[in-house]
Amino acid sequence: MLSGTVVVAASFAYLLVLFAVAWYGDRRAEQGRSIIANPWTYAMSLAVYCTAWTYFGSVGRAASGGVWFLPIYLGPTLAMSLSWVVLLKMIRISRTYRITSIADFIASRYGKSHLLGGLVTIIAVVGMVPYIALQLKAISSGYSVLTGSDNSGVFPFAAASWFNDGTLYVALTLALFTVLFGARHLDAAERHEGMVAAIAFESVVKLLAFLIVGGFVTWSVYEGFDDIFARAFADPELAALLSLRTASSAGYGGWFALTLLAMLSVIFLPRQFQVTVVENVNEQHLRRATWLFPGYLLLINIFVLPIALGGLLYFGRGTVDPDTFVLSLPLAHGESALALLAFIGGLSAATGMVIVETIAVSTMVCNDLVMPLLLSTERFKRSDHPDLTGLLLGIRRGAIVVVLLLGYLYFRLAGEAYALVSIGLISFAAVAQFAPAMLGGMYWRGGTREGALAGLLAGFVVWAYTLMLPSVAKSGWLDRAFLDQGLFGFDYLRPEQLFGLAGLDSISHALFWSLTANIACYVLVSLARVPTGQEATQATLFVDVFSRGQDAPATFWRGSAQVQDLQPLVARFLGAERARRMFESYARERGVASIAELKPDAGLVQFAETQLAGAIGSASARVMVSSVVQEEPLGLDEVMDILDEASQVRAYSHELEEKSQALEAATAELRAANERLQELDRLKDDFMSSVTHELRTPLTSIRAFSEMLLDDPRIDLKDRKRFLGIIVSETERLTRLVNQVLDMAKIESGHAEWHNTDIDMRELVAHAVETTEQLFRDRGALLELDLPDSAPRLRADRDRLLQVLLNLISNAAKFVPTDAGVARVRLTCDVGQVRVDVTDNGPGIAPEQLGVIFEKFRQGGDERSRPQGTGLGLPISRQIVEHFGGRLWVQSRPGEGATFSFVLPLSPEAGNGPDRAMT
Amino acid sequence: MAKKILIADDEQNIVISLEFLMKREGYEVSIASDGDEAARRIRSEKPDLVLLDVMMPKKSGFEVCQEVKSNPELQSVRILMLTAKGRDTEVAKGLALGADAYMTKPFSTKELVERVRSMLAEH
């Protein structure tokens, strides 16, 4: 046991350290060297999710329900990994429109409605008070366990008299602390760097403390995980805890409901909204947090089961409250210092939650509850008070104290009824009511103010009836009769079996009915009427925040406002000096020299309103601004026009972007086309150069011999005849060349004429062989012909095909060896095609030559004995064959002759043509 | 003693005409029908002048020319390049490789004979 003085002194020392951290954080922020501007601090601050409830309650929950404590952590893990886009959108919206709380978010989205903001605030306060009570309860029971001030065990701290109750002083100390942390000065962005630093620090402290206690229990009290679990399995009751069957005693529905509840809570709890959204420094940090935060949750859960089982094994069932195992186990083993550390860990979990939650709730109370009431008094609207910053701070501080005292009150009244975890779940279920209006507001344009009001109200009422009232009744403050018999004795109105829905645990049951009522009312009432101009404006701003984000927001406002009116207005709430600085920097942004030169346009009004919104909430800011400007309200049609215009502008810029992309693509295409043209040009040059060479060569002989004959009359007759013969043959060569070049050009350019007829390939091949037989005879070579019995007819140009055959056969004739030459022409008919092979026993073609012989002017063969040819025969043949849809290719190995083959597809009319029909 | 001339060209008819012209001028003529043979004959026969076609199989006229000009023993061999490719770059390339003169096909027989005569007279 520890003395009360030691515990109190240690607690205060810890709070002082915390304050030092916060002070340092604030100081660094003022110097512009933020210590919280990194993803780790951000993720640690998110861990404010783990409150004293986690710290003490999970163990209690594990002790009674086994792995039933898990959904509370599965939920956030799922939420962070699945819905970080939702969080990102919330952050972007809140930053863009200076939204500083959930109440403000919902109020602003549905047309800057005071009524909605107020309702959300009330739900938040009512929902959070039990949760705050829970923290107080944790601290006080922890204190009593530590000091042993009351032997009766569980809730001893509550003394008979209020003034003697230590818990009251805990509450007041925390209130003082929260005021010091969170409400020292006003900030338009409502950001508290020091507080975030302190919260992150607390997250580390509670994690370390819990891990150390867990380690102590696991390895010092017992001999590791194996030992604890082995012992637990040896005990049938404990073994039952570890089976999933126990855990699912509430049904899988219970698991689902609890996980869903935790998912919604980690997004919509006021304190989570505060640290995740309002205190976010950089959107990028969210990415890292999506795995860091779940990692944190994993770590802090490792020892939950070991501590719970260890406690049950050590103390036995029903002797010591499992919620206090974290403290009582070290104490029972005489480790006072460790117990004190564990208490400090719990204290940091509790204080962290209380500080952030009350700051968040006090912002709501001030901006969405008190300010609207003040604004409704005429006297206040007129600027009798030039500076209201003091008043605003006063309201917030008051709200903090009141919320904490309410928490204390709840603790006194109802704290005895439930174990820690159940109180927390009641709060979670209240917060879940925000989900439809929040999510709908971010993704659905159709939601209206009435819809949101109806949904929230319905959900809240059902929540209160099915969860809150029973909890109060179970504490004995209400007649329990309605619990068992239903309201007014109507059986189907029993709050925990509403409309006869039984078989669910109370939380799942309440969640089911409240969310059903909430969503149904939200959607149906929203659909009942078209959104007003103001609603449509806000809907567009919220839903399209990402597509609008970077540009100046579209302004849905018409009227006139003078900077002389607006600046004092902002000054009233934010202080004169601050307001002047803001307007000056706005003027600089707008590129004008001084505040006086600012144009009284919609942008200016929007600027002033946004600045005010940060301090007093968007709805109040709207009211205040409209009190000093002359404005013409916009109807829905006009808003739609503006929206149209904006979307047209977007469409234009989109179109422009597309066009410039198209232009780029066209440029690239042109460049490619140009390169192709240059390539073609180069090919043409090569072709021309080749043609020139081929033309000049015969011309050279012709000219030389002609000149010789002309100059020298004494040349004898024999030489004369020989020279003239050469001239004639070179002239023929020249003619052939010119014809072939023209032929080639015609085919390539598509101007060639094709006279298609039905062709009998047998007859054609035979004819070609006959024509060329003389060539082979001249060289003493043999030409063999191999024809099938019949061949289908083929529709093609007969002369062209003959040209191909003659080219291939005469090539063979040129290359077969003199006197031992053999060439073979073979026609075969495959399915749907005919094939011709021309094989020779010439020198063959070197592998590197195989590809080039089909290029123009590239003659193959051994050049020394290269026969006369233009170098165009094969290219032309290939063009012809390909024109009829066939292929021409060569197979050869040096020294083994060559086989030139082509196939031609039978065209349909050739297959079943009229000729065949006649036979 | 008659000057020795080597005619290197793969076009049979052009060789016939050149051979006739050179013999009529009283030169001793030998013939090569590809680049390899041309290089071989130049080394072994050391002709006074080579009528060297550029587009020849196996070894182009340019390669043969380069080989000859880089061989100190063959310093006295004159080279007159003949080409059917009339581009300026071809002429420049030939001269850069050390050819002594250059003529494009089809050439005037008179000019060719004149040029051969003057090239041989220089020594």
Automatic annotation (TrEMBL), chain A:
Its EC number is 2.7.13.3. This is histidine kinase. Keywords: Coiled coil, Kinase, Membrane, Phosphoprotein, Transferase, Transmembrane, Transmembrane helix, Two-component regulatory system. Its main location: membrane. It is an enzyme of class 2 (transferase). One of its GO terms (molecular function) is kinase activity. It is a multi-pass membrane protein. CDD domains: HATPase_EvgS-ArcB-TorS-like, HisKA, SLC5sbd. Residues 649-690 form a coiled coil.
UniProtKB/TrEMBL annotation, chain B:
Residues 4-120 form the Response regulatory domain. Gene3D superfamilies: 3.40.50.2300. The modification 4-aspartylphosphate is found at D53. It comes from the Bacteria. Keywords: Phosphoprotein. The keyword rRNA-binding does not apply. It comes from Aromatoleum evansii. InterPro entries: Bact_response_regulator (IPR050595), CheY-like_superfamily (IPR011006), Sig_transdc_resp-reg_receiver (IPR001789). This is Response regulator.
